[in-house]
C-alpha cells in the first residue's frame, strides 16, 4: 500500500524495512503447522526481539520502554511487518495496544512498574474478560460480582468470547461491585492473574476448527485490592479506554482483505466472466473506498489529531467486505481448492479463514448494530435509542427470567 510518506515517514519506513530484512527471517513461521499454544509462544519470542530494538510498543513513552513514536510510524511498522509470516496477533496486541494504554492512563505507579515493561518484552500476555453470556452488546449488563473482603476481592461469574485466554498470563476484568446504582456506575476494573485458584478456562471450538476464543469461569477467585484499577465504581470509564483502543485497532486491519488484483485476474479467466462483472465491480469499488477512507484516517493521525466517532465506519465496513471478498475468491477457486497442490491448498485455507473471521469481526470490537447506533447518534446527530433501564438501579432491572 502506498502511504504517500512524508520525508520523515519515508526515512522511518526505510529504517524499519532494513531492520526487518535483517531480523525477521529466523522468526518466520508456517502458522498452519503450529498449534495455538505454539503460535502464542513464538509470539513471545518475536515480541521480545522487537522490544530489544525499540519496536515493542512504538507509541508508548520511552520512560516505560516505548519509543514515543507517532501513530503514523506505528502504522508504517505494521505495514512492513505484515510482509512477513511472523507470529503476530491479538495474543500480543491485547497487552500492548489495549491493556498498557489503559494502565498508563488509569493505573497506579506500582501497576505500571509491575506490568508495562514485562508486557512490552513479551514476558506477559493478556486477555480481556469483559463480555458475558447475557452481556455482549449491552456490556454494562454484566453480572459477574466482586465482593470486598478486607484487603481482597472475591470474584464470581462467567465471561465468554475471551480471545486467547488459554495462553494468557493475566487478564483485565470488569465486575459489578454495587447493584444498588445504575448499571454503568456499579462496575469496577481489575487485573487478574489467570493462574489464580478458581479461574477455569475452557476453549470454544469455532467454525474455523480453531479455538482462539474461550469461556472463563470465576469461582470465588480472590485477588488483592492492589489489583483494582482506578477507584471503585469507575470501571465503565476505564473499560471505555480499553474499548476505544480496541476499535481503533480492528478498524485498521484492511490487510486481511484478499488481494483484489489476483481476484480480478481469476474472474477474467472464469467461464462465467461476463456474469461476474457487476459483483466484482461492486466489491472492488467498496475495497477502494475503504482504502481511501483509511488514508483519510491516516492523514488525520499524521497531523496529530485524534480519530472521532466516525472511525467506527471502517470497522463496520471491513467485516462485511472480508466475508464478501473471501466468498467470491472461494467461488472462483471452485473445485480446484480441493486439489492436492500444497500451495493452492494453503491459499484456499487462508481464504476460508478470512471468510469465517469476517463473521467474527462483525461482532468483535463492537457488533455491527452497536457501531451503526454510534454513527447514527454521534456522527449524524439522530435521536438516541430508547434506553429505559439507563438510570434504574441494576438490582431493579428485570432479568427476563
Describe what is shown at a glance:
Helices cover 46% and strands 12% of the residues. It is α+β, with helices and mostly antiparallel strands.
Q: Strand count, sense and closure of the main sheet? A: 4 strands, mixed
- Total tally of structural domains: 3
How helical, in percent, are the residues?
Answer: 40-55%
- Overall, the morphology is globular
Supply the CATH architecture of the largest domain: Up-down Bundle
Rg (CA only) = 22 Å
Task: Please provide a written account of the structure.
The chain has helices spanning 7-23, 36-52, 71-81, 90-106, 109-120, 235-250, 260-268, 273-302, 312-333, 342-361, 368-379, and strands at residues 126-129, 145-149, 152-160, 170-176, 187-193, 199-203, 214-224, 228-229. By secondary structure, it is an alpha+beta fold. The protein has three domains: 7-88; 127-233, Butyryl-CoA Dehydrogenase, subunit A, domain 2 (Beta Barrel), CATH 2.40.110; 251-379, Butyryl-CoA Dehydrogenase, subunit A, domain 3 (Up-down Bundle), CATH 1.20.140. Helix 4 runs antiparallel to helix 5 (109-120) and helix 7 (260-268) runs antiparallel to helix 8 (273-302). A four-stranded mixed sheet has the order 1-4-5-8. A four-stranded antiparallel sheet has the order 2-3-7-6, with no helix packed on it. It is globular, with a radius of gyration of 22 Å.
Amino acid at each position: 500500500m502506498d502511504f504517500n510518506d512524508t520525508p520523515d515517514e519515508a526515512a522511518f519506513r526505510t529504517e524499519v524495512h532494513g531492520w526487518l530484512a535483517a531480523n525477521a527471517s529466523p522468526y518466520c513461521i508456517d502458522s498452519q503447522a503450529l498449534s495455538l499454544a505454539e503460535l502464542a509462544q513464538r509470539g513471545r519470542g518475536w515480541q521480545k526481539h522487537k522490544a530489544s530494538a525499540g519496536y515493542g510498543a512504538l507509541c508508548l513513552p520511552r520512560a516505560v520502554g516505548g519509543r514515543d513514536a507517532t501513530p503514523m510510524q506505528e502504522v508504517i511498522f505494521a505495514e512492513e511487518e505484515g510482509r512477513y509470516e511472523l507470529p503476530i496477533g491479538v495474543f500480543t496486541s491485547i497487552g500492548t495496544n489495549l491493556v498498557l494504554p489503559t494502565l498508563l492512563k488509569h493505573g497506579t505507579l506500582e501497576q505500571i512498574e509491575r506490568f508495562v515493561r514485562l508486557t512490552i518484552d513479551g514476558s506477559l500476555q493478556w486477555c480481556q474478560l469483559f463480555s458475558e453470556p447475557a452481556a455482549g452488546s449491552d456490556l454494562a449488563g454484566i453480572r459477574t460480582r466482586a465482593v470486598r473482603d478486607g484487603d481482597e476481592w472475591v470474584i464470581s461469574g462467567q465471561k465468554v468470547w475471551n480471545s486467547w485466554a488459554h495462553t494468557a498470563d493475566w487478564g483485565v476484568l470488569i465486575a459489578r461491585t454495587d447493584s444498588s446504582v445504575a448499571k454503568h456506575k456499579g462496575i469496577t476494573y481489575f487485573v487478574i492473574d489467570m493462574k489464580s485458584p478458581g479461574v477455569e478456562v475452557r476453549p470454544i471450538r469455532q467454525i474455523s476448527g480453531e479455538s482462539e476464543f474461550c469461556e472463563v469461569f470465576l469461582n470465588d477467585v480472590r485477588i488483592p485490592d492492589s489489583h483494582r484499577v482506578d477507584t471503585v465504581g469507575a470501571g465503565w470509564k476505564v473499560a471505555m479506554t480499553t474499548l476505544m483502543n480496541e476499535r481503533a485497532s480492528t478498524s485498521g486491519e484492511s490487510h486481511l482483505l484478499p488481494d483484489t488484483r489476483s481476484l480480478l485476474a481469476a474472474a477474467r479467466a472464469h467461464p462465467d466472466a461476463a456474469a461476474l462483472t457487476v459483483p466484482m465491480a461492486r466489491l472492488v469499488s467498496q475495497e477502494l473506498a475503504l482504502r481511501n477512507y483509511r488514508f483519510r484516517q491516516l492523514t488525520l493521525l499524521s497531523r496529530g489529531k485524534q480519530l472521532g466517532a466516525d472511525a467506527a465506519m471502517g470497522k463496520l465496513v471491513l467485516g462485511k467486505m472480508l466475508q464478501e471478498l473471501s466468498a467470491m475468491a472461494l467461488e472462483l477457486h471452485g473445485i480446484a481448492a480441493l486439489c492436492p497442490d500444497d500451495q493452492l491448498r494453503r491459499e484456499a485455507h487462508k481464504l476460508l479463514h478470512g471468510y469465517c473471521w469476517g463473521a467474527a469481526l462483525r461482532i468483535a470490537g463492537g457488533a455491527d448494530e452497536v457501531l451503526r447506533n454510534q454513527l447514527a447518534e454521534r456522527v449524524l446527530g439522530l435521536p438516541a435509542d430508547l434506553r429505559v433501564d439507563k438510570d434504574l438501579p441494576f438490582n431493579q432491572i428485570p432479568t427476563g427470567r
